[in-house]
Amino acid sequence: MLYLLHQPEDQEQVEEEILPLLESVEVKTVPYPPTELSPLENDIICCYLNSEDLRDFLPQASKNEWKVGILPHPENTHTIKGLGLSSDLGTAIEEIVETGETRHLDMLFCNNIPVFQSVNIGNVFIFSKDNNSNNFFSEVYSFLKNIRRLSSLSHQAFTISAGDEKIITTSALGIIVVEHPLGSVVAKRLISENAMNDGLFNTLVLSPQNLLELLWFLFQSLIPLQKKLSNLPPFIGHLRTAELKIDNPAPVEFTLDGKKEEAKEILFRIQQEALCIQQASIYCTTKDGPEQKKSLKTEGLPTGEKRKELTKRTIPILPRATAEEFQDLFKVLRENSRTTSIYVVMMILSTLIATFGLFADSSPVIIGAMILAPIIAPIVSFSMGMVRYDTRMLKQGILTILIGTAVSLLFAATVSIIIPLKITTSEIAARLSPTLLDMGIAVASGIAAAYAHAKEGIAKSLAGVAIAVALVPPLAVAGIGVGWWDWEVFSGAFLLYLTNLAGIIMFAGITFLVLGFAPFKKARMGLVYTLIVIGLVMVPLSLSFNRIKKEANITQKLEGTTVNEVVVRDVRVRFSDTLRVSLTLVNSETLKSDEIRKIKIKIEDEIGEPINLEVLSARGF
Q1: Is the pLDDT of residue 124 over 80?
Q2: Rounded CA gap, 373 and 300, in Å?
Q3: Are 217 and 226 in contact (CB under 8 A)?
Q4: Which CA distances in Å does 361 have to 428, 431, 449, 466, 502?
Q5: What stretches pass through the bilayer (predicted)?
Q6: C-alpha to C-alpha distance for 123 and 111, rounded to whole angstroms
């Protein structure tokens, strides 16, 4: 016997569309709710009901171990999709009538109400798209429509526990609970597929701590052809359990298969193999492979101070450090900003090593001086004082920097006076013409220095930052210029030092802002002043950069060319009142002064300006 359960208002559809497909079996139509229903062991109850009616009826069928078939109804799409059943009426009837196998499915309950697809708690709208849409452009439109509401998103506090065991007290934008990943468009991107009847369900806790990481996640989810993200984002917790309790201090809104509910306490439980289905389901898979086990992945979820701060306001655009993180870093930077005897001694030693290395033209010795130099520490402290507008740290930082600068200049000048050499080695010459490229190095070094201080785990990389930015060698060269009483040497090297200093201060401060250690309002004036200094420094840097470009162009034009059957080699350009060009002329015979004069005129025509020509003649064979 097949009992056909339906609402009285669906009588016409039953007679016209369903009963003709059931002519081969004995059918008894029963209006819902039934006054009395006592099926025998081999009888089947075929339900043509909406999702709300099925929510009431299926627990009763489970309790009585009735065999059930579910037909697609205009108002039970949640049930059909959630249980993985056929949405074609003819196929569903054929499976119910002809199948001889009963399949058992787990049932997920939320506050004792069956869940067919998913439960969405809190603000999860931004993660959701139309489940019926597989069109990329529709997903993009849905994303852009929701993105306008990002600025109003905020976390809610949740206590999550399983039975008597408390798992975590955290905050989140929202929580998604599904029995199977295909029950939610977000879950199917994040969770590896598993059989529905494994006795467990999935919980995703969505806790982005700033809008940047949320936007990046949403962007990744829109990438075409990417069915599943390779790794679970760190701000998403994933729990697989058989029971779960979610508490909130105040009533929280949630949707159960699209229907709005509200509660302070939300209980989830799985009833294993509760439903006897007399038709095929895509979720009734054989349990090959390892048995599924309970798992709790909550490492990236906010707790403690971070949780409290996230629930007080809307999600910040940029990462924001907690009070605990800020206090630890601030304590270190305040200590680094002070002038100590150790700092002065290390500045003297690093300057002496750098100065001797410059005279010896030895790169390894100069690199050793860079590693020893402690001046990077007060500069980073000054950057934090700037963005936090901490006057005490600013004063201590600038005083320490000035003392370090003066000490370095003094000892480098003293060494240059004592050593009876006045030779501009290649290492000294390399620091006399700073360009915009050096500003780029300073920018990257400032970011690296601030990041290395902020992230405790990578603090050991500060030696690498010191080598990259090279603060002491240009200071030592400037000191040598003082000892030689040579303005060109002093000004070029000191401009390089100022370039490094301004670049580090500016971009270390910006890095602290991005990492959430200071609000922009406090940092605004300090950043403006530093930007003005950088602007002033970049004027001579731009001029120097243009000179280097001009030198490279002249060298490229002349090197290897043939002028009056004479080959030009080893071109070097130096700038003075009149451009000085040094080169080697290779010829089979010794050149006369008239021939060299003609070559000079042709080079001037090629360059477009008069030059002082220095020639070394070489004979080629």
Answers
A1: no
A2: 37
A3: no
A4: 8, 12, 28, 20, 27
A5: 340-359, 365-387, 399-423, 435-454, 461-482, 494-515, 527-545
A6: 20
Residue pointed to by tokens 């350009």: 573
Quick count: other Cβ atoms within 10 Å of Cβ 402? 12
CB atoms within 10 A of CB 22: 17
Please state, in angstroms and rounded to a whole number, the distance separating the CA atoms of residues 47 and 539.
81
3-state SS of 231-294 is: CCCCCEEEEEECEEEEEEEEEEEEEECCEEEEEEEEEEEEEEEEEEECCCCCCCCCCCCCCCCC
Cα-flanking dihedrals φ and ψ of residue 230, to 5°?
Answer: -65, -35
Local structure of 423: helix, strand or coil:
coil
Q: How far is C-alpha 438 from the geometric centre of its chain's CA atoms?
A: 28
DSSP states along 541-610: HHHHHHHHHHHHHHHHHHTT-EETTEEEEEEEEE-SSSEEEEEEEEESSPPPHHHHHHHHHHHHHHHTS-
Pairing status of strand 201-206 against strand 67-70 = unpaired
For residue 293, the model assigns a pLDDT of: 75
The answer to whether 203 and 241 have CB atoms below 8 angstroms apart is yes
Which residue in the block uniquely carries the two structure tokens 């060009």? 581
pLDDT surpassing 60 at residue 516: yes
Tens of pLDDT, residues 353-389: 999 999 988 888 888 888 778 888 888 888 888 887 7
For residue 18, what are its two tokens?
Answer: 């369903």
The CA–CA distances, whole Å, from 140 to 131, 176, 199, 267, 292 equal 14, 22, 36, 34, 35
Segment 20-38 shows an average pLDDT of: 86
| Per-residue pLDDT at 142 | 56
User: Distance between CA atoms of 435 and 329, rounded to whole angstroms?
Assistant: 33
* Neighbouring residues of 474: CB distance < 8 A, sequence distance ≥ 6: 431, 434, 493, 494, 496, 497, 500
pLDDT tens-place string over residues 32-57: 988 887 887 788 999 999 999 999 99
| Farthest-apart Cα atoms in the chain, separation | 125
- Distance in angstroms (rounded) separating the CA atoms of residues 71 and 80: 8
* Helix-then-strand count for the chain, H and E: 20, 19
State the Cα–Cα distance between residues 501 and 446, nearest whole angstrom.
9
d(CA 31, CA 8): 6
Beta strands per DSSP E along 32-190: 44-48, 67-70, 103-110, 113-115, 118-122, 156-162, 165-172, 174-178
Taken in order 362, 364, 369, 370, the sign of the CA dihedral is positive
Structure tokens at 551: 């030198």
| 104 and 197 Cβ atoms separated by less than 8 Å | yes
Helix (H) or strand (E) holding 344: helix 341-360
The CA distances from residue 367 to 349, 404, 426, 428, 474, in Å, are 13, 18, 15, 14, 12
Q: Which helix (H) or strand (E) holds 411?
A: helix 391-418
Instruction: Look up the pTM and report it.
Output: 0.64
